[in-house]
Records
---
Amino acid sequence: MTIRTQEEIVTRIWALRADRGDIFGFREEVLVEALDLDHARQVIAPRHPSEWTQRVDHETYARDYLRFAIGKILDHRSNSASRSVDKLSELAWLLGRDDIVAAMDHPGYPMYGAPKVKAFADGFAWPFLDDLDGDDRLALARMTEGQQCDPQGCERGCAD
Ligand SMILES: [Zn+2]
């Protein structure tokens, strides 16, 4: 479910294109899947309409995507982490949470976006650290605070 109308989603896609804030199209990807086929046709030209899949349950998708995003942070995958932050931000918008979008916009981009992803999880009161085990939990907690994952010093990119 989304509180956004189809027209609002189309308008947001045009706005993202206009201000070039979504160079790789990751935000648009999330938005387009929230459109029905008629509205999707306004922004893309699906070659085979039968391949079109509309996502209806954004909340389940967002919860799953949050776990994926946390994995990318822990794996120190900067491109994937950046992509997942973009997608989570659009999911927050689709779910009607402008406050979370703003909270995610606020900080810079330290530690593979860990503070932004935490802002997303906290905004929805969804688990962030809770279902991680010892080492991962400690690493993610540290990264969220802008510290290197390992107190001894990280050799995988935190210091870059
Ligand atoms: Zn690290």
---
Amino acid sequence: QNLVKIFANRPKPAVDGINITFYEGQITAFLGHNGAGKTTTMSILTGLFPPTSGTVLVGGLDIQTHMDSIRHRLGMCPQHNILFNHLTVAEHILFYSQLKGRSREEAEQELETMLEDMGLTHKRNEEAQNLSGGMQRKLSVAIAFVGEAKVVVLDEPTSGVDPYSRRSIWDLLLKYRPGRTIILSTHHMDEADILGDRVAIISQGKLFCSGSPVFLKNSFGSGFYLTLVRKMRTTKMGRATVSMSVVCLI
Ligand SMILES: Nc1ncnc2c1ncn2[C@@H]1O[C@H](COP(=O)(O)OP(=O)(O)OP(=O)(O)O)[C@@H](O)[C@H]1O
Ligand SMILES: [Mg+2]
């Protein structure tokens, strides 16, 4: 509600009067240029620092007065991984799950599901410092969901992740969407289009527009999607087809 953040050393607000509602059971994708104010907004949402003015209500509770209660159901994946070098993948999930109040047994059950869903089963005993960048990212996303987090804030969860792993993160988000309010920032327009029930575009700290991808395309879009399907010659392996999509903008 009227969210404003002015950093002490900068005259221009990083967040400049944003009003927006995020809905349960939906993924809202935050799109915006570098420095648009995505991380600042998400940091305020998760209580990392307070707003200069305005506030955020999470399930009716105000972040300025009820942050401790809100944290119980909040999960966050920061833009830059914050992992413990010498804890393994499994230890991270167990640690955060128990930190959120789950028993050891519940945490162990959650661990198995998470490892399976993230495709990290073979890395369960690997220390975080030995994981590739993409795997560290996957672990950070998994941590955001542990402990039955109901409001999950993901700051560029798929940055630096290969296309196959990106797909597995998408699958995880879609699987975990029911009953949760998921907010993710991204620079990938295809990602926002595919995952976002709603897309919010911010520019220079202001909410530029928000709505479902269909609504936004109908309101502001001009152009066509042209899908070309080319038949390949029959090979010993059978017939293969290649499909590619080209976006033509008028
Ligand atoms: N701690 C800080 N102190 C001063 N200015 C800051 C601070 N954090 C962010 N800013 C400024 O606030 C503005 C918004 O930054 P923010 O990190 O929210 O952008 P972003 O949309 O997340 O960008 P990116 O896509 O590059 O991650 C930028 O102009 C940035 O320089
Ligand atoms: Mg950012």
---
Amino acid sequence: MGYQPAKKEATLLAPYTMGPFELSHRVVHAPLTRFRSFGNLPQPHAAVYYSQRASKGGLVIAEATGVSDTAQGYPHTPGIWTPEQVEAWKPIVDAVHAKGAIFFCQLWHVGRVSTNDLQPNGQAPISSTDVRCGPNPEVPSEYSKPRRLRAEEIPGIVDDFRRAARNAIAAGFDGVEIHGAHGYILEQFMKDGVNDRDDEYGGSLENRCRFAVEVVGAVVAELGAHRVGMRLSPFLDYNDAVDSDPTGLGVYMAQQLSKHPGFLYCHVVEPRMAFSEGRWNIPHRLLPFRKAFNGTFIVAGGYDREEGNKVVADGYADLVAYGRHFLANPDLPRRFELGAPLNKYDRSTFYTQDPVVGYTDYPFLDDHDDE
Ligand SMILES: Cc1cc2nc3c(=O)[nH]c(=O)nc-3n(C[C@H](O)[C@H](O)[C@H](O)COP(=O)(O)O)c2cc1C
């Protein structure tokens, strides 16, 4: 078929030791929300989806998963705050482990990216601020006006993350990724374009990051640093969350993570692709964060096989997370190994509710293509 198999040294297909976990390759499944967890309960079809994408020694990060009943911003996203949710995750985790993969749960609180009707008793969503999040063209309804958390309420939310982390381990997950990206609650505190507080959780960089740093500390105390990663997106502006000094913010957070000996990984999303010299390019602006962080460094955002191999070979990243390509190619690491063509993703079914279509029906490489 004219495939060009990758050389195994210093590429996506090279093994890697991440703390206590022996990875057989560097192709990570990025967290991908799919709106198929009816009533916030993970469903049996998720076991099919994730086990399709699990490979021996591969790292799979599960979709954003709510830490409490105030954490939800969209219908049909999974949670991990009730015993029923923990039970529902167990067979999914078992299916991934049966394939020999390592499975992390992404812990999520949306903050103000929500509406009153998704909140308990119709209350207002909570945030760092009482300023409403601007509209998102992909979401039909407008977000509701949030309620600014009082400083004395914040330890309660930190505790929600801690309890959810404990639940994730009870469900069998190997560890958790704290969702500190994409304009959700932790970024609503971290970024100066949203945080308008004048207490110890607002103002200086240290104050704005205090909540996120407390969440990290609580989850590390609960699970041990070797089971905890964090995702950050200092350069993105999703959900109206911008910062005047994204590099300073990301470096500060990477330093805070490094204060926990053995903190497992720092996972950072690249800025949006930039068009130059006739093509879309990944900006590759994450090096300061890699330098500031001691553990495993994961990059994401617009990567293909060639760019992934390049950043691993250059030492810019240890691992590369793939979102849309993994969504559409259950056997992505194998396709990369063989240099095989990729299925195209169908954006129209990213967020639909069908348990099969656009979810578990993307084809595997046919066996005869291996020859
Ligand atoms: C359908 C879809 C759902 C996503 N859900 C999440 C999520 O739950 N948590 C998260 O941190 N990022 C989420 N993302 C972002 C991806 O993890 C990834 O960073 C992004 O798609 C860029 O990588 P890619 O170019 O490889 O797709 C989502 C992206 C897509 C397309």
